[in-house]
Amino acid sequence: MPATPAWPPKSAPRLFVPGPLIDNGHCVIDGQQGHYLLRVMRVVPGDIVILCDDMTGEWAARVATAGKRELTLDIVERLRAREAVPDFWLCPALLKKDRFDLVLEKAAELGAARIQPLVTHRCVADKLNLDRARTLLTEAAEQCARTALPELTAPTKLDRLLKDWPTGRTLFFADELGGEQAAKAFTRAKGPAALLVGPEGGFDDAEREAIRSLADACPITLGPRILRGETAAIAATSLWMGLAGDW
User: Fold this and answer.
1) What is the CATH number of the domain that holds 168?
2) What global pTM score does this model have?
């Protein structure tokens, strides 16, 4: 007997689209996503595409019509509900573009719920193309078969972040001058959490004092070696996720 084809097909393209998606609904795809499906993946009517809406989960959809620039898909069935995401924010200082791209990509893969870019005194960059950054996050989530996207906010200055910090959310502060061992601090703390990571040049003395004066701040050390900004953000996020039980 012939083998039963896998469902959904493992080769099916995966895309995040605006929602909400519903049973027996329809979805029209155009623009860059339409170009990707039509010209790169070369889908035709009858092919299956996996859709996620960052709201209701993951759905299998069948191509109903395929024109020159857009497609219409019929929603077939929901495959998975939207994944549970730990209440963890990553607050990284802006870095050089390629290095910050890596932070965004890995934060999406690792499961950060929110990414709040920061501008500090020693940042070499002070701007972020939010549309491009959201595209990077989306592509990373699609490639890793995630059903949830991190919330990305516009860059803010460190003093504004501290002034508006929500009471009860622990702010783990990766301080190159030392603090509690990260693993111990992560294990001990309960409830909503966030991680603050500095730029290439680190925090200056005034910034460090301001952070430590925050009631919810918890200075941590990531070990005996000085880590680059992108390495610190990725390593500490990985450690927190593992200790929180997300792995």
Assistant:
1) 3.40.1280.10
2) 0.92
